[in-house]
Amino acid sequence: MECANCVRFGVQCSFASGVAIRKGPPSSTSVLSEQSLSEIRGRGRPRNNWTATVEHDEISEASGTSWTSATPSPYATEGHIDKARAARPNVQEAELLLHFVQFTAHTLAGSDKSDDPIARFWTYNLPRIGLSHHFALHLAYAVAGYHLAYLNKTEERHQELRRLAELHASAGITQLTATLAQLDRTNCGAAYISATLVCYCTFAAGPTGPGDLLVCNVDQDRDHNWLPSIHGLRLIRESFDDDVLFAGLMEPFNPKCHARDKDATPAPDKRPRFSREGFLRVDWEQHLSDLRGFIVMYDGGGGGDDDDDGICLRSLDSLIAIYRATYGDKDGSYDGPQEYQHAFGSNTYLAKSMFTG
Fold first, then answer.
1. How far apart are alpha carbons 12 and 237 in whole angstroms?
2. Is 192 in contact with 237 (CB distance < 8 Å)?
3. Eight-class DSSP state of 122
């Protein structure tokens, strides 16, 4: 005979409690009852499995679920596993962003000084613009990808980086195009700097064929693809006032900002570029003078504003100004406008459509 407590705990005894006694071994129900009771905590503070809690919280946060959710464990559902995989960091984009802020940004700014306002814009402001306007971030990734591809001479790695740059450039241009249809004071700055990055991407991608000479394309079956980008950039610039276009994170480009800092900055070095940057001087005067004489002779002494020869003559004079600012006169001196020292700015941004068309 066994008492009720003996039955409950599955032990033998020789006395009866007078309550629900039975004969024989404990039943399977009694054993199961024991297992169930073992799961019920007794007195004292319950124990916690902290490792399981942390892992569950991390997966829950990544997948958007709550710890108190009644859904099954994320480890048991394929959908949650896919979400966890998707939450892994994108190493490729991280590499592009790091390269942009650490290297590419300083080449765009022309300075590696941390207190330079333009360098700070490219390293600090632009990534934050990209948080609100994703097309700017895509285009920054693209420029960094082209830069990395240029620096990496391993063929397989070079091609991989170019494909990655093209992917981000395509995504950025698609999103930027949609934004241009609804341009306003809230997104004009992001659109302007993104259009600038589109131009950089186009130039960094290199020639599209043997006849692509950058300033024009002599292949009849190909159109130059950079000119619409240049004109679009100029159109955005002319559509908004400086205080609107260059507000907030775009302020370093505001002309008023440069005017305030003018007294604090040293006077610009007016020497020609070859003297400042230490590369060899080119004797350009006679060659370009002969070319100019040929154009004048071909035009028969004309050169009106509306004919092709007049356009060629004015464009050549612009090119001569660039050579003078870059290589100086015969004695190596230069005393002219600073803007002529930027070949892209003078010969592409300001080029007339009749000359390049």
1. 95
2. yes
3. I
Rounded to whole angstroms, the Cα distance separating 257 from 250 reads: 11
pLDDT at 182: 92
- Residue 329, SS3? coil
Instruction: State pTM to two decimals.
Output: 0.62
Question: Which pairs with CB-CB distance under 8 Å and at least 24 residues apart come from 57-63?
Answer: 59/84, 62/87, 63/87
Query: Can you give the pLDDT at residue 59?
Result: 31
- Buried b or exposed e, range 87-103, using 16+ CB within 10 angstroms: eeeeeebebbbebbbee
Tell me which long-range contacts 219-227 makes (C-beta under 8 A, separation of at least 24): 224/356, 226/199, 226/202, 226/348, 227/353, 227/356, 227/357
Block mean pLDDT (10 aa), the chain, length 357: 62 53 47 44 50 38 37 50 69 95 92 88 96 96 96 92 96 93 94 94 86 73 64 86 93 79 61 83 91 82 55 83 88 79 57 51
Helices within the chain (DSSP H only): 4-9, 28-39, 50-63, 78-86, 91-99, 105-109, 117-120, 126-132, 134-151, 155-180, 188-204, 227-239, 242-245, 255-261, 273-277, 285-298, 308-327, 343-344, 353-356
Distance of CA 262 to the CA centre of its chain: 30
pLDDT value at residue 207:
84
In DSSP terms, 280 is beta-bridged to: none
Rounded Cα distance between 351 and 209, Å, is: 22
Q: Which residues is 77 bridged to in the sheet? A: none
> Measured in whole angstroms, how far is the alpha carbon of residue 68 from the centre of its chain?
38
